[in-house]
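User: Run a structure prediction on this.
Assistant: Running it now.
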Amino acid sequence: MKEESGLPLEGIRVVELATVVAAPTVGRMLCSYGAEVIKVESSRGDEMRGAGLFERVICEDDCNPLFTIQNSGKELTSIDLKTPEGMEAFIKMLSQADVFLTNVRSAALKRLSLDYETIREKFPRLVYAHLSGFGPKGPAASDPGFDSTAFWLRSGPAADWQVPGSFPFVPTYAFGDMSTSSVLLSGILMALIGRERTGKGTLVNTSLFACGIWCNAIGVVSHQKQFGGDRPLDPMRPADPLSQTYLCADGKWIGIYDNDYQRDRSKFAGILGFPELASNPEFATLATLSETDAIVKAVERLNEIFRTKTSDEWREILSKNSISCEVMHTLRDVGTDPQAVENDYLTQVDFGKGVKVMMPCPPIQFSEYKVRPYESAGVLGRDTDKVFTELGYSQEQTEALKAKGILK
């Protein structure tokens, strides 16, 4: 009897035809928790293999930390799908799969006869997961969708999360992709559960634009015309002075956050040595702060107060009084954060050649299930022989396809 691996998605097979970050991250998560994920690349390989060039991280074939984030544990093969032999092999893969995961644009999938309608006729139990930039309908449906364009620029935050007159902020690479991947992952898991009940596969689709809107749902509602429309970001006029960031004596920022301004202001007044916060009627409510413009006076005083101590001193004081707060960390800080390390949110991976990297881990943990350990993602076509042997190809057939340039 086969020993249980302890991985919750063991037995699920995924064929991934996807590049860069959002969709491959879905495959990575499925793989981490037990699914067999076969990643099919073109002869050029996933563009993510070269991301280290502009992110200034080593990206050699056998030492590529950024590519590894999305692709650790997958079986890697390369097939030319524009050839009859390549497409025949790919369809055979789909015949054995539970999930087809792709972010290839719809028109290209249609040309390859890999669109949902065609594939559903062949494999009605297959869960077909498609990620796009802007969604399957509308004037932008066929546009190339990047994290920067579809998630950030189109859904609002790039414009509204900045002080007027400042240069638009630049988010870290693929932040929106990573957020969107979690949404598509949940859709796939729901579809697999539904298939157990109904026996039917389904199309699961989402887009970077949809997830940008969803992640900014409160802002999308609160900034509509009937609620006042535009709300320019003014650091001297925040919505709540006790839910704001302040510069400390050591040049670092700390964020403080109340639960309810009117209820908590007396507590903050005592802790911060700012009695007027509790006694001045202009400071009584968020409404009076705004109506009288006393918010400026309050923020100016709070700025003065926070500059009297270091960020660590303020964090200790506020935390002891059960006030939610945190010092603003840089990305450089995260790789050595003891809270992250102790909770296994980061793990060190040895890529060889003296390169050891603290790698962010898939963020879901189970008490009764395991997760696949991190491993360095390999060269293009690393697992072609294994994948094609399992498809029923002989070694001679596989080598012949390689000789024709159909496989790598």
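The longest strand covers residues 36-41.
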